[in-house]
Structure prediction request, 112 residues.
Amino acid sequence: MDPELEKLVLRYKFIYSMTGLGLGLVSMIGGIALFLNGIAGSTSWTAKILGNESTITDAAPGAILFIVGLFTVVTTRYKVKIDRGSNQYGNYTQLDTSRDPGPTSQADGSAG
Prediction:
């Protein structure tokens, strides 16, 4: 890929991610404000996406706004993959920061 195009893509990906973060945080803060001020109401939510189902019944509008903001932040987060090339054995390695690797194990089998 052309280095200039790659820089441009990364710049716009960063702008997209920061916009999502800003809008998500504003939505979450608005939800907290509605919730703490006691804005009453009854809202139901049912969503089915790719076989996953989410159902919320009798929720305050602030709670729904907070959940939408949280979903926006999570879905627009900036994911980075760093290509480290091949190691000494010729294996291709890649660092993926978009997920938690979990606990690590040492060569003797103990967790560490």
About this structure: Helices lie at 3-36, 61-75. The mean pLDDT is 78. The CA atoms of residues 21 and 36 lie 22 Å apart.
